[in-house]
Structures are given as structure tokens and as C-alpha cells.
Design the sequence.
């Protein structure tokens, strides 16, 4: 069975048309937000601007706001194996009608 979080992130990667390096030179405040991952209780946020498949993983580029904010690369495996319980929104919104929960994750899709 495919994990619903992985499935939804795969969907945005397929349809977003925002491969790695596609927003180089675009100011952060003008980049399209593909998804936002908020950790529950850890006070970390990953804002995804670019996404691309790398084998059976997905590489993301975005703003990681943890101990301090920084732009960087992270993978789906990073998000899933760090044991982060997260609230995930797509296109920067949390539509209640599309909410579902799985494995400690609250997931929203626009």
C-alpha cells in the first residue's frame, strides 16, 4: 500500500512543472509555493518551491525554517524518516474538505 503522504507529494511533483533549479533567480516572495510541511511540536516548517523525482525518492528545494531560516534541499525520505509528525498543506492552504489523517500526519490538499 502506498503511503498517502507520499502519494500526494508524488502528485504535486508530477503536476507542478517546477523541477529543481526552475526558480533560480526568482525572489523568494515571488516563488510559487507547491506545499508546506509544518512539524507538530518541533516548530519547523518546510516550504516547497521545487520538486523532482530522483529514483524512488523526491528531491525538494525550499525554505526550511527551523533553528534559523535557510533555503536548501531536502528529500521525501528526510521528511518521512525523521519521525516528524506534520501538517501538510498544498498550494499554501488548508482546505478542511480535503483533510485526512494518516500515521500521525494531518494532510491537506488544495
Sequence:
Amino acid at each position: 500500500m502506498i503511503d498517502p503522504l507520499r502519494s500526494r507529494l508524488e502528485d504535486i511533483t508530477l503536476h507542478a512543472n517546477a523541477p529543481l533549479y526552475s526558480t533560480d533567480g526568482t525572489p523568494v516572495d515571488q516563488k510559487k509555493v507547491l506545499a508546506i510541511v509544518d512539524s507538530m511540536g518541533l516548530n519547523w516548517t518546510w516550504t516547497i518551491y521545487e520538486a523532482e523525482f530522483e529514483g524512488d525518492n523526491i528531491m525538494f528545494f525550499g525554505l526550511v525554517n527551523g533553528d534559523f531560516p535557510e533555503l536548501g534541499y531536502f528529500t521525501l525520505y528526510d521528511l518521512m524518516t525523521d519521525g516528524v509528525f506534520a501538517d501538510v498543506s498544498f498550494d499554501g492552504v488548508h482546505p478542511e474538505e480535503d483533510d485526512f489523517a494518516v500515521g500521525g500526519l494531518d494532510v491537506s490538499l488544495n
